[in-house]
């Protein structure tokens, strides 16, 4: 890994820095913590890479990062998807500097080493001077790549166990509910990704994206500019006034669950059945009237699949750590198949309002995160600079095996951090023993 | 041969400079008075050679959504512009690309320096090409379309909550 800072084994006591009701601010800013995360979370664990619909044709590829490791997600000749390092195995040159493309093979611009789509080294110029076995010099590949309903994940170390264990019942259900928004059961991420660069730590994004407490304040300008957004009824009604809930699943997966507070079908789409009749008919045709009705009322989840996949209702977002104080938050609209394109046009418009650096919501979140990051830049463990996360600790409850609480409670934050603590301190079964 | 006569060319250039200055100074009420009822404001991802709405854009505002954008900026609690960025843009290379009836298509290049005072205090640099469609009305020139193609739009961008 291209990390400049090495952490010493005893440098951070994650069981002290992450407590039941508070965490220490140095977790956002300490370069040694970031280095540990790139190893324990983004190398030893499962990380979301992309969706198979992004690479429909043989040779299609998209550029991604597993933590800070640059990779390509590629459609192979046999139709499978591979994830390979975007780095020549010879001298390390980036093979594909663009965001996406289509190649017959990957040829390095430096010395012409050429790789097949799955990373196998096909040939080197001047072979007489080269005596190593080319079979040993393919592109680096993650130890495990797997997908669930087209959502592709990779685990670099290969030691994380099966993807199904990582997702668990919670993550599986969240991806099911997202995928079932499409009448074919298969979503399509083909409208392009927009990236927002934020000068804050990456962990502020799983937190901010799943914080039901900040909306009345951080997003007050949106409530005033558009008084009748659907957020009014699902989150802006105040403490204990909304039927919405925060949920924390095993494995660090989180949800702001709005389903109980919607007062009309398709409220999450801001429309009525007549306006998207073809879509609704297609859902009924595929799932039957009962299940289609549930889908139309409940809408898509607003949820995190730990650590970097944000199922952002009708968007998919990736949280990309760049450095302790730099994050890229990328999103693409979640498009559906098996219906006319009018609903997808609506989804693109909805995405442009909600997400990205010129949107009505994430701009305010970005400034708040940047202010928060600045406030902890000097934080050192053991001193001032604790973050209180106790809200709702006394009223949350276990239901159906998950932790639930009021929409304004920090159950989601605690769910993220307590899983983080297990991973960083070694209790989640990785090869590390923490301190 | 020039597409328009000299007085028209001067009017068009003056409009483009005024539009830029009002945006620089966050004078959104006055800026909004420059647009027509069918205004479209577009900041595409990559070159603006696609139909807006078929792929995701940074900004793809019809008149109503542009109104929402300006109302949000006026609330006084839009943290992303509280306080407003200090901005100055240099507009150059103005060319009148076409003239049809009362409408003119105008191309220009710009460099914008933004002091992002809300959190980081960074000096941010924005550069690109603007294409305006201007219409002569009873109240003088008005803007029916503004497309802004940023030179680095395919890389992640920092906050863009102001009018560019």
What does this structure look like?
The complex is a heterodimer of chains A (435) and B (164). Chain A has 435 residues and is α+β, with helices and mostly antiparallel strands. In chain A, 27% of the residues lie in helices and 22% in strands. In chain A, strands 12-18-17-16-15-14-13-21-20 form a nine-stranded antiparallel β-sheet, with helices on both faces. In chain A, strands 5-4-3-6 form a four-stranded antiparallel β-sheet, with no helix packed on it. The longest helix of chain A has 22 residues, at 277-298. Residues 1-10 and 429-435 of chain A have low confidence and may be disordered. Chain B has one domain (6-150): Nuclear Transport Factor 2, Chain: A. Chain B has helices spanning 6-24, 28-32, 63-74, and strands spanning 35-43, 59-61, 86-100, 103-116, 122-137, 140-150. Chain B is α+β, with helices and mostly antiparallel strands and 164 residues long. The model of chain B has no long low-confidence stretch (mean pLDDT 97). Chain B has a six-stranded mixed β-sheet. Chain B has three helices and six strands, in the order ααββαββββ. The chains are: A alpha+beta (435), B alpha+beta (164).
Architecture blueprint of SSEs:
The complex is a heterodimer of chains A (435) and B (164).
Chain A: H1 14-17, E1 22-24, H2 26-29, H3 31-40, E2 47-51, E3 60-66, E4 69-75, E5 81-85, E6 100-102, E7 106-107, E8 114-115, E9 121-123, E10 144-148, E11 151-155, H4 163-179, E12 194-198, H5 204-209, H6 215-218, H7 220-225, H8 231-234, E13 245-248, E14 254-257, H9 277-298, E15 302-305, E16 309-312, E17 315-323, E18 326-333, H10 342-354, H11 362-375, E19 386-388, E20 397-399, E21 402-406, H12 411-425
Chain B: H1 6-24, H2 28-32, E1 35-43, E2 59-61, H3 63-74, E3 86-100, E4 103-116, E5 122-137, E6 140-150
Parallel strand pairs in B: 1-6
Antiparallel strand pairs in B: 1-2, 3-4, 4-5, 5-6
